[in-house]
Structure formats: C-alpha cells, structure tokens
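Appendix C reproduces, verbatim, an entry submitted by the partner laboratory led by Prof. M.T., so that reviewers can inspect both the input and the predicted structure.
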Amino acid sequence: MYCPEHKVFGSRLVWVWMYWRDVPRETIPLRVWLNPLNYEVSLFAWTWGNSRRRLVTINREGRWVRNRIWRFKQAVKRAIAA
C-alpha cells in the first residue's frame, strides 16, 4: 500500500511533503514533481523534551498558493479597470 504523501526533504526545522495520487513514488511523472502546487512546507520549532511544534504550514495541497494567485489576479483586474 502506498501513501499519497511523499516526504521530499526533512530536517529538524523544515519538512517538505509532496501530495499526489496513491501510487508508487517511482511512477510519479516529472510534470507532477515540477508543479509547486503539489508541495507542502512545514516549519517546526523544537521545545524542551526534544518534541517539535509546528509553527506554520504553507501550501497544504495547493490551497495557500492558489488563494494568493487568485487574490493577485483580482488586484490586477481592479487596477486595470481603474
């Protein structure tokens, strides 16, 4: 069984995950690897007792970036209309 979440990079402070379909990692096409909307970046802080606490998660399944792109497009449309 495979998981749609694939760890791309992990360190003590930063974790990068890629989300796609439930397929083996080797079969993911290059166009998926190159799409930044498929990634999630999480920043952590370490607390006493060697446990980590998530500070921020950016781009969970593309929602964060898509929302920013939509807001930018709306601002451009308003500027052009003015």
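The first strand starts at residue 5 and ends at 10. Additional entries are available on request from the coordinating office.
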